[in-house]
Amino acid sequence: MLRTDTPVTVYRKDYTPPAFAIDHVDLVLDLDPQRTVVTSTLKIQRTGTADAPLVLAGEELELVGVRLDGQPFSGVKQDGDSLTLTGLPGTGTLEITTACNPAANTTLSGLYVSNGNFFTQCEAEGFRRITYFLDRPDVMTTYRVTLRADRAASPVLLSNGNLLSQRDLPDGKHEAVWEDPFRKPSYLFALVAGKLERIEQTIVSASGKQKLLQVWVEPQDLDKTRHAMDSLVHAIRWDEQRFGLELDLDRFMIVAVGDFNMGAMENKGLNIFNTKYVLANAQTATDVDFANIESVVAHEYFHNWTGNRVTCRDWFQLSLKEGLTVFRDQEFSADMMGSESGRAVKRIEDVRVLRQVQFPEDAGPMAHPVRPDSYEEINNFYTVTVYEKGAEVVRMYQTLLGRDGFRKGMDLYFQRHDGQAVTCDDFRAAMADANGRDLKQFGLWYSQAGTPVVTVKTAWDGASGTLTLTLSQRCPKVGIETRAGMPDKQPFHIPFALGLIDAEGNDLPLQREGEPKAGASTRVLDFTQAEQTFRFINLPRGGKAPLPSLLRNFSAPVVVDYEYSDAELTFLLSHDTDAFNRWEAGQRLATRALLHLVADVQANRELKLDPALVSAFRSVLTDGALNPAFREQALMLPAEAYLAERMGVADPTAIHRARLFLREGLARTLKAEWLAAYEANATPGEYSPDADSMARRALRNLALGYLADSGDADMQALADRHYQQSDNMTDRFAALSALVNSFAPGREHALADFYERFEDDALVIDKWFSLQGMQRGEVGPHAGKRTIDTVRALMQHPAFNLRNPNRARSLIFSFCSGNPAQFHAEDGSGYAFWADQVLALDAINPQVAARLARVMDRWQKYEMPLRERMRAALERVAASSTLSRDVREIVSKALSA
């Protein structure tokens, strides 16, 4: 049964500590797919007023019995999803026996069954689906867990911490007892039981202690685990070296499951992962998959300290662990790239995601601060704002304080708060106190939503060699901030990094007015006022003003408003020593050209290629001194979704036509250069996911995609040969994508061949579905081949399963969120399909349905009649009488925006 009751808004200001502490938990679980019986024995201690009841949360539970200090207890009242116990003493032992049905649990929250095996997912509020409990993150306790199950059906029994004992029981059953010596909140509890195999490795920690590492998977997947294990070892070593943090348990386990709502979960010592972020070998995983596995394995491991040892006081503080840990995994991945150019590529990738996904969220109906002030359904706040923007906030600490200062702040944070549930303000205080800095104003990044816009103006006095830089910031109210009575927004503390470049392309040493001498060529300005002026002196006199390189390395999550000329952007693309801003200059040029083309499409004018942009692309494509991975990033056109956000009123059809025209034009005009890049970046020999090989394959496969889009038969034949001769998934799938999206004659044969080769590998078939959901189709009122028809047909394919989140995301989400031109068809067919699938998924898995519902957040951004039809689809979903709280919050906020 789904939670369809009217949601109650929870406010951060209403936080109160729990009325009881739980000193220890003994859990005994008799695992059975249809009826698992759970006996929970709690050592409780009153911490509130003498008459306060103990109110425990529970969902979908059968209450079998309650005992206090060994005797039946009658002061129990069941009320919806809660269990209220009155008349309890100051201390006591409470025993609660419940039963649940894991096989019927399609929400994949709590205890559930996947392919005959038992798994748990308890964040944020899944533990209450296992037993009645104070299911909140500030209730931290130790756990001893006894698992019992049929030995033949579940030969492996795992839980958090250390294995104390194992034994056989009568009637073909067996038992394992686990104990976690570290206090943790209930959301970090985990168990796994079933038929699994493992690879394992023993390492010695920095302090000389032996640690057992295990990766558990279904038997057929054992040959795809090596990369995950290697990634875990790399993450452990990196955390020891970068932050002085060691693995604190004797063993660390990763388990892969095919049915999982999220990417992975950091349960203490027993991380449960979506198979997508564990399984990989050369034949089945792309370079992107290998990189994602390394990143996610590291992320969940890093949570052992930033999330487990120190956790959140309440769910409003979610970014305390998630923003910090995303920053840590970004830094790890950048270091694994092995070079400064590699670090720059990683930074570009992260900012691309932020701009394409988080900036629109910051401008939409679900806009919220990094630390929200209220929510109706906490599952809806696992957002890119909390994660990715939260990581940018953490990065700004490092930018302001330096790497050494940031490390000092981290050390103080753990010294003060190890074993505690704390707040974002506690983290900020540690950073401030460790460095003697006043960071009070910086706290506004946690409490104010939206993306600040920084307008830059310069004034040059050539006679004195003085450049005056004036920065002004604005950030309109968004989301809940627009309600009557909300306070005015205050200026943010923005670390604004910049450099000045002379006419020869050299960075200039910078000396601010009042400083005794010039310093570094990149300076970080403390921009704290609504408008602020900075003056740089003793610059070379006479001639042209130096060209500003603004917001270097994307030093803050803001939009910079400065009108560079095309010539200035071209100069920056060629000369800026800041690799991020070099990429940024190219993106600005391409965005400007694309938006001009969109206007031409809308006005029915002839479309023409911009020769200056072609020249800029040629210079990057042929510059062998540039890292191939950087060239690949620089030569990717801005996404259609990003272009839509840059328009006052979005026109998806015009955007698609303009972007396709530019892409095909670049393909034809630069055919020789693309072909040269394709041939020069082959990676002969055995496949390797090392950074250099990945970079070369990335550029080569980008070139192949452009070549296929030229429309030339010989280039489409090249893509077909590339597909047939590939010895790894990266090359094979890139070729398949090129064939499908260029409408090459061999596309249908290649799709059929790909399915036949990989039909037994679920993750590879997810790619097959996803590619077809995002494939180009004809657009406009007379469209013939429409992608939605393909998607509807694929939903009837025997391999499609709506109940599996990966499969649903691979096809439905890919179409609805990854194919804007086809999704936003003028007849509204995409919106009707969206409504159908949101309602169908909501009946099975509200968390997945709510994420699909977010596709329509920005409905008011679109032109008529699209906007009208999007609203109708939202109203249709909102009218459902069985809508879950998860989806209801999303659609109601969208409609009320």
Structure description:
Residues 566-895 form the Peptidase M1 alanyl aminopeptidase C-terminal domain. InterPro entries: Aminopeptidase_N-like_N (IPR045357), Aminopeptidase_N-like_N_sf (IPR042097), PepN_Ig-like_sf (IPR038438), Peptidase_M1 (IPR001930), Peptidase_M1_dom (IPR014782), Peptidase_M1_pepN (IPR012779), Peptidase_M1_pepN_C (IPR024601), Peptidase_M1_pepN_C_sf (IPR037144). The protein has 897 residues and is α+β, with helices and mostly antiparallel strands. It has a domain at 10-195: Immunoglobulin-like. It has 26 helices and 31 strands. The strands form 9 sheets. It has an 8-stranded mixed beta sheet, with no helix packed on it. Strands 17-18-19-21-20 form a 5-stranded mixed beta sheet, with helices on one face. Strands 29-26-25-31 form a 4-stranded mixed beta sheet, with no helix packed on it. Helix 8 runs parallel beside helix 10, helix 9 (579-602) crosses helix 13 (652-669) and helix 19 runs parallel beside helix 21 (805-818). The mean pLDDT is 97.
Structural class: alpha+beta
Number of helices: 26
Q: How confident is the prediction overall: mean pLDDT?
A: 97
Find the count of extended strands (DSSP E, 2+ residues): 31
Under CATH, the homologous superfamily of the domain at 10-195 reads: tricorn interacting facor f3 domain
Question: What fraction strand?
Answer: 15-25%
CATH architecture of the domain at 10-195: Sandwich
Low-confidence region ranges = none
N-end to C-end Cα span:
30 Å
Strand order of the largest sheet: 6-5-9-3-2-12-15-14
What proportion of the residues is helical, as a percent range? 25-40%
Query: Any idea what the radius of gyration is?
Result: 28 Å
CATH class of the domain at 10-195: Mainly Beta
Could you describe the largest sheet, including whether it forms a barrel?
A: 8 strands, mixed
Find the CATH topology of the domain at 10-195: Immunoglobulin-like
Outline: globular
